[in-house]
Design goal:
Layout (H helix, E strand, L loop, with lengths): L1 H15 L27 E4 L8 E2 L3 H5 L4 E13 L6 E5 L5 E6 L14 E13 L1 H10 L4 H5 L5 E13 L1
Parallel strand pairs: 2-3, 5-7
Antiparallel strand pairs: 1-7, 3-4, 3-6, 4-5, 6-7
């Protein structure tokens, strides 16, 4: 008797787990006269929500800084490289091939690892600082550089770097 009751309960549960989807409605045929939206041109935002207004080209940064050691600004440039471990830094470059390393304030956000070649607008602080040998080697590892290239790093580098609090990626 218990087996029959158990079997009936299982059968009832299985029957009640049927398809509860609403009936599908037919969708009208696509209108071929409309133009398609270019989804590759849509912007993605990372970190603080920023705007493109007032962004300067990377080539103009040194002139804007003058003798200052730090400058709050917005830059625009092409993503040249991005950390291949988790997107925790990127290099952006200008048309002349000059590049700057961009890190993210408080390690609060990361960039997609496949964003090389896209345009980035970054807002934050540009500063001149000395990057240690250990950090340079870590960046080289993250960029999948050869062991020989990593071993060739023998001294720290004084360079212009950027700490972003927000990024627009196009």
């Amino acid at each position: 008797m218990k087996k029959i009751f158990l079997f009936a309960t299982v059968a009832l549960v299985m029957a009640s787990c049927g398809n509860n989807e609403a009936p599908k409605q037919e969708t009208p045929a696509a209108d071929t006269t409309k133009t398609e939206v270019d989804t590759t041109a849509q912007a993605q935002y990372f970190g603080a929500k920023i705007s493109e207004d007032g962004a300067i080209a990377l080539a103009d940064l040194k002139g804007a800084m003058g003798e200052k050691k730090e400058l709050n600004t917005k830059l625009v440039g092409e993503v040249e490289a991005v950390c291949q471990k988790k997107g925790c830094w990127m290099n952006i470059k200008n048309a002349e091939g000059e590049s700057i390393r961009v890190t993210f304030k408080d390690y609060a956000f990361f960039m997609p690892m496949d964003c090389s070649g896209k345009t980035a607008i970054v807002e934050g602080v540009a500063k001149i600082e000395e990057t240690s040998i250990a950090d340079l080697k870590e960046y080289a590892k993250d960029d999948n550089q050869s062991k020989e290239a990593i071993a060739a790093i023998k001294e720290p580098k004084r360079e212009l770097v950027f700490e972003a609090n927000g990024v627009i990626l196009k």
